[in-house]
Specification:
Length: about 400
Amino acid sequence: MAAFDYVAVDEKGRKKKGVMEGDSSRQIRQSLREKGWFPLEVDAAKEKSNKSFFASAGPSITVNELSMLTRQLATLVSSGMPLEECLKAVAEQSEKPKIRSMMLAVRGKLLEGHSLAKSFEEYPKAFPHLYRATVEAGEHSGHLDAVLNRLADYVEDQAATKKSIQMAAIYPVALITVAIGIVIFLLNSVVPKILETFITSNQALPRPTQALLAVTEFFQSYGIYVGIGVVLLIGFNIWWDKKPTRKKKKDAVKLTVPLIGKMIKGFNTSRFASTLSTLGSSGVPLVEAMGIASQVVTNLVIQERVQEATQKVSEGSALNQSLKETGFFPPMMLHMIASGEASGNLENMLERTAQSQERNLKDLISTMLGLLEPLMLIFMGLIVLIIVMAVVLPITQMNSLVG
């Protein structure tokens, strides 16, 4: 039995969309006609996604959706329900058609005899390699419910970290946006009208006023080109990152930037350690877990070094020594990993060191954003002061001439 997406018209002429399970599209069409609906489209869930440009990867879902889906599935599996019924219940629970369609399609693959991890392979954008490898380890160990709960914790932690950083950045970003908007508005609308009187009087203007006029004229004449240039720069940056060799060069430069480089190192090393802990505690062998965990490292320079460390571990080197040779992992993390290897409690130590690194990273980001707010206020104050001086100085000069 497979899942089919349908589009039909009901007896009142309203278009209806949904997902139904059946043995064939003909059976689905017949079921719709029995309800008094006229079927317009009936496609197998996977086939329908193949009509899109990014079809091979299937639909994508947000981190929050994946977290909720995983937690629901873990709870149902823990209750002792058959796996196919768990998938059906999760599909029915979802309010989004794409998730219902996807979960029913996964259930269809499961009913065909595939494992859950193999069934998830149909949707790599929704269920990344890390997710599928962890599920496969849970299936092999016979503790799928525990592994799913651990996986849900991991996804939720990643989502919470990302959300906390985004929330902390909202105010500074909004402040910068408003500041830029006010400056552009003043330079294009207010300032030219105020200074028009002084320009027509043909009197010599003070240097601040001349500079402000020059800036205003520049934005009025070339502002649209500046906007186009910014868009082109963003497009060039996206194009540049598409080729790994080019992106690697940019990633290497990022690591040399003060504070930014430290943040990148902290983010990637903590994420690697957290992922390695999740995979290891789920029963994935260390070398395989390192190979999978290296894929969550976004900086290509660090990723390459981690992959080299994976090769060394596969050849018999200790994990802490191999990671030390990368040059990116902090000493405290390496000491805790070495302690975990010696005590046989590596997964727990990896989790603790990842949590410690994430706390340090959050503190660093909070400090940087906290400093950014007063700096932006000072910057705005200076801009306003310059504009006021450029307007007031000619008035003062004119009054002195009249007097």
